[in-house]
Amino acid sequence: MSNIKNQHYVPRFYLKGFSNEKLRVWAFDKTTAKSFPSNSGNLASENYFYDDKEIDEIFGAKFIEKSLGDIEDRIAPLLTRLLDNFDNRKVFKIDKQTKAQLCEYMSIQILRTKEHRQSILQMFTLMEQTLVEKSWLTQQQVKSLGFQMDPERAKSLQISHLLPGKSLKMELVNSLNAHICVIYKNTTQTPFYASDHPIAKRAHIINPVRSFSGYSSKGIEISFPLSSKYILVLCERSMFQNYEQYENEVLILNDPQNIIYYNSLQVRDSYRYVYCAEDNFDLAKEMVETHKELGDVSRKRSEIG
Asked: At 181, phi and psi to the nearest 5?
């Protein structure tokens, strides 16, 4: 069980997959464009991040933190064993049950981060502003309908998403599990990045009216680094039909440009920090320098018409 006060939104066992031989993880801060070494216990965490008085009164003290700890205790040995089997060439293809377990874990990881909390806050704030500015609702009506949002309400709403049996979580699991799954082994000298929001998305369909960036959207590609050497990629079936022949297989990536591509998604979609086994953040620095908004934790994340 992790420190009950210092609560992680990316698990320590996961971050160890991006550590060096001294078990140190390098972190890059997008707000300062500086990097520093640390241990996994000090990264992607915040005091009392999941504490919620109302939920704890109903379900028991530290309920969410303990529930997440139980999930981590189940997934950590599975992931360790899986990566060892990849390395030892005992496994060249994962089975449907393993894929389902990984998708379930990914759904929790998506919902538990600080980035997700910030997205909730921004989405409801933009919705409130739009409703009032377009005179569709008054400020009082917005409040009475529950669209008004502040950081504490965003926290409570995020935490509610993590409760057992919640429909949003189950819908997310089903969406992820429906996609084609491919696992890539990185054989280049450049390690994969991870981040404080390690499940990244890329929409391959760009439409000025409609967003195709949802986890079940047509053309969506979802990537989740499993370690410095392995990355799990989910691809929507209708656009990526040619990938079905490789479904659930472990394939080789030997082109550094492929690693740069997936690392760039980690830089873009992270809340604030990018992680690596090495102090190898030239890409992250270049992206933050070129796109200043990436270093702003309050950057615009969504559009409401």
From this structure: -110, 130
Sign of CA dihedral 10, 11, 17, 19: positive
SS3 3: coil
Q: What are the φ/ψ torsions at residue 27 (nearest 5 degrees)?
A: -120, 140
- DSSP conformational letter for 238: T
pTM of the full structure: 0.91
Cα(286)–Cα(131) distance, integer angstroms: 38
CA distance 114 to 45: 9
Helix, strand, or coil (residue 180):
strand
Residues in the chain: 305
Report the Cα–Cα distance between both ends of the chain, in Å, rounded.
Answer: 44
pLDDT digits (tens, 9 = 90+) for 206-255: 988 888 999 999 999 999 999 999 999 999 999 999 999 999 999 999 99
Contacts of 213 (CB under 8 A, 6+ apart): 201, 203, 220
| Beta strands 180-186 and 250-253, pairing class | parallel
